[in-house]
Amino acid sequence: MKKTILAVSLIAVLTLSGCSTTPTDGSTESGNISDVTIVSNGSIDSSEALSDITSGVSIGQPSSKQKASTVSKPQSQASAKAPSKTSAVPKVTGEKSSSATKASSSATPGQINALRSAKSYLSHSNFSYDGLIGQLEYEKYSHDDAVYAVNHCGADWNKQALGAAHSYLSHTAFSYSGLVSQLKYEKFTEAQATYAADRCGADWNEQAAKKAKSYLEHSAFSRDGLIAQLEYEGFSHEQAVYGAEANGL
Q: Across the chain, what does the average pLDDT equal?
């Protein structure tokens, strides 16, 4: 009696759990207690009943496809967590660079100090390329440090020549050729000296008159002697005559 009850109980549990029975002909039917024939002659063994029942019953377990779907992660989620390799690379902008900047980054202390001195001189006076090197060497910088400083000081030598021309003309009178010669004496090149004389804005007749006046303040001259002296200073004959006449000769 107990064995029969056990078999009936198992069938009831499986039926209530939504199981299905699988007949031997391969068709599938919903598990229902009325679809199962129970032998209740009292001779069935509980282990045999359990084996017979479970062999024909498929407990509602998920299929292999369902198992795989519950384990695998959606593609979008996996890709969202993966960091982008390109996003980690910083954007390189074009860096601004010059030969002077690159050289300065590896300059020696002597070169750096020479460069500071060169810029200081240029902030107060005008120098030619060679003139500035000479000034730095006079200050006991080595030739190499002086050359480094002059090469990296950023000076425009044409403008330096023009500035020197203006400075000379503010103190004394010059002819055109006399001013060019003076600038070349200060070690400006021919081209730089000519650039300055062409752009200094001098009135060469007025320069001749000023020069004639300066001579007459220190010495006595005849008209022709004064004209000759002015021509010696590089003034043209017409400019020399103008200078003499502007001073009453």
A: 74
